[in-house]
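pinging the channel bc i need a second pair of eyes. not urgent but kinda urgent?? the chain im working w is below, pasted from the shared doc
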Amino acid sequence: MTSPTRSPKETAVAEGVLEIDRISKRYGTVRALHEMTFDVRAGELFGFVGSNGAGKTTTMRIALGVLAADGGEVRWDGRPVDLATRRRIGYMPEERGLYPKMKAREQLVYLAQLHGMSAADARRATDGWIDRLGLDARRDDEVQKLSLGNQQRVQLIAALVHEPAVLVLDEPFSGLDPVAVDLMSEVLREQANRGVPVLFSSHQLDLVERLCDRVGIVRSGQMVASGGVTELRESGPVRLVVDGADADWATGLPGVRVVATEGGRTTVELSEGADDQEVLAAALKAGPVKEFSRLRPSLAELFRNVVSEQGAS
C-alpha cells in the first residue's frame, strides 16, 4: 500500500493563524463584503456558514488572491499573504476546478508539481491520497467520467496533495454520500490535528455543528456571530421547557413569552433580566412539574434566527 509522502496523521506543520482583517469588496453598487473579520487558528476546523450570496466565496477568493479586496488585509502568521504563502494554501472551489478530459491521477501529479513538488514526490503523494480516499479503481479515468462524488474526492486530493499549511474549502461535502462525508470529515480532522488551520463553508449545519471547533455566521457580507458551537448555542435569549400544567400559568408573567405548547409541555422565552426561578414557581403553583430545563438551540436554529433578523431589518 502506498501512502502520502508524509503521513497526515503523524507530521505536524508549523503553527500559524490565517487572519481576515476588515476585508471589504464591492461589485459596482453592490456591497459584497463589509469589514469582514475573523481568524482561523492552527489546528482548528472553522465552519463558515451563511445564505447563498452572503459573501463566503468572495472572502475565500480574496484570501487566495484570486480577487482583490477594496480594503482590509489577509495575513498568515502575522504577515500579509504573498505569492509564496498562497502556494502553501490548499484550495477546493465549490465549482469544478479540474480539467475534465485529463485522467485523475495524471492531473493530480501535475497539480502537485505546480505547487513545487518533485515529480517523484508528486507521484508518491498522489498515489497515497488516491488510496486513502478510495479512488484506486478510478485513478486512470478521465475526470468527466467520474461520478460527482468521486470528482469531489479528486478535488479534495488536489487541495491536499502538496501538504498545504492552510486549507480553504468551499462546500467540500456537496454531492457526497454519508460514507464519503464520514471519510472526508476524518481527513479534515487529521489535517487539523497536524496543526493546519481548516476553513470550510457548508450548508449542512448539522455536520458543521458536529465537526467544527468554531463557527462564523455571515450575513450580507459581514460576520454577525462567531465562536465555539457551545458558546453560540448558549448565547441569545434563554428558553425553558416546562412539562406540567397547560400554558395558562405563563400568561402575564413579566418578561416571559410562550414560544410553543404541546399538551402540558410549554416552551417559554425569557427577556433579559427575567428570573427563571419565578417561572418555576408559577408553573409549580399551577400543578406538578415533571420537567424544567433550559433549551439550547441547534446551529440550524441559530442560523434561521440570523436570517429572519435580516429579513426584518
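so The two ends are 57 Å apart (CA to CA). and The domain at 18-232 is CATH 3.40.50.300 (Rossmann fold). — does that match what u expected or am i reading it wrong
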